[in-house]
Design a protein that fits this description.
single chain, 394 residues, alpha+beta, 5-stranded parallel beta sheet, 4-stranded antiparallel beta sheet
């Protein structure tokens, strides 16, 4: 039996460990934090979105420019595979009206407990508070609570996450170790990020209010999802899919009345009585909630449009913002180990026997189950590939 070391105990790392253990290898999982899968548990606090139950080609399009690279990986463990995996751990799932799949209990902790129990039965050893600090020669070095440990591994799977939510373990510290080895890395950038907006004091009563039934647009991308007005700006699933376009400088607009075309809206505006203020008309005729009316006035302050321009502005209201929130606040990150640095089995071309998986790879996807699906799928793929590599070199 070979000694396999998996660094990082998130979904990708645990999946890789399970594949290596099922192939008969001794597996050690090293995790820097005091407990495992912290980001997974955090995501599950408001309902763990496991995957998106939709046709495979539709699912794959959500991975954007990385779709071709991820095609065989996700095809091997797609939305159906994720659901079967959860059921295999004794957790029933259901599909919501939007196609998002959740455990029936909605939380991540019961699923994780069952998974850790299965890994323990398979002989997987998990050590926490083991922080990887690179290589010493060909061996792996870890700083632990009882000093430095150096391990000679027959195969290594790196599943160290991206560079957001450092408090949960994804701090990107590993990048310098791979860079020193000549591994190709793309710069980290925020993905699924909130926006900074310098609100006037008039917006304070609306902090925490959701903007629903809207259509956001940036570049060629549109989204019908909602967003929340926060003290720092705007956040929510409706904006997250626009992050790549916003990173590239595309202006952001919002359609406040997406179910009315512009001509119909203009006809309604034309019937407005002269004595009726715009705010009264928006509330009584369009039935817009206070937060939408406030957003309209906030974004047009200093240069209110002419009445004949109102319909167009309601349909394409420019959102003045200060850019994306800091990367550590983002749900995920783009950047990391490039496709060119890896072979088809996710092994580093320059470092035989070292595989990579999960969010540390240079891909991104919107929320909605796509992130977790690809993390699980790439972890499984890397674990299987590592086991195959061990079999070939034995």
């Amino acid at each position: 039996m070979a000694q396999a070391v998996v660094i990082g105990a998130g979904p990708a790392g645990l999946m890789a460990a399970e594949e290596l253990a099922s192939a008969g290898h001794d597996v050690l999982v090293a995790e820097a934090k005091p407990s495992v899968a912290r980001k997974f548990l955090m995501a599950g606090k408001s309902g763990l979105n496991l995957t998106k139950d939709e046709p495979f080609e539709t699912l794959l399009r959500s991975y954007g420019e990385s779709a071709d690279w991820l095609r065989p990986i996700v095809a091997d463990f797609d939305a159906v595979g994720v659901q079967e995996w959860a059921r295999g751990l004794g957790r029933e799932v259901f599909t919501g009206s939007t196609g998002r799949v959740f455990p029936t209990v909605m939380k991540a902790s019961p699923l994780l407990r069952a998974w850790l129990g299965r890994l323990e039965t398979a002989g997987v050893e998990i050590r926490t508070r083991w922080r990887w600090v690179g290589w010493v020669g060909d061996s792996l070095a870890f700083d632990t609570t009882d000093g430095r440990h150096v391990i000679a591994a027959d195969v290594t799977v790196l599943a160290l996450g991206g560079a957001s939510w450092a408090r949960l373990g994804s701090d990107g510290h590993w990048a310098r170790f791979l860079r020193d080895k000549g591994v190709g890395l793309a710069p980290f950038a925020p993905a699924n990020s909130a926006l900074s907006v310098d609100w006037s004091h008039h917006m304070q009563p609306h902090f925490g209010a959701a903007l629903k039934s809207v259509r956001w647009a940036a570049g060629d991308v549109q989204s019908r999802g909602e967003a929340t007005i926060s003290a720092k700006g705007l956040e929510g699933g409706g904006l997250y899919s626009l992050t790549p376009a916003l990173r590239n400088g595309a202006p952001l607009t919002v359609d406040l009345v997406p179910d009315l075309d512009e001509n119909a809206l203009q006809a309604r505006l034309s019937s407005r009585k002269a004595k009726t203020t715009l705010s009264q008309w928006l509330k009584k005729s369009l039935h817009l909630p206070p937060q939408k009316i406030a957003l309209f006035h906030e974004m047009v302050k200093g240069g209110p449009p002419k009445p004949e321009e109102w319909a167009g502005v309601f349909k394409r209201l420019p959102i003045r913002h200060s850019g994306l929130r800091p990367m550590d606040e983002a749900i995920s990150t783009a950047g990391g180990v490039t496709r060119a640095a890896l072979n088809d089995g996710l092994m580093l071309v320059s470092m035989p026997g070292v595989f990579c998986a999960g969010e540390m790879l240079d891909w991104e996807a919107p929320t909605g189950g796509y992130l977790l699906t690809a993390c699980l799928a790439s972890g499984r793929w890397a674990g299987k590939s590592a086991a195959d590599w061990l079999r070939r070199v034995a």
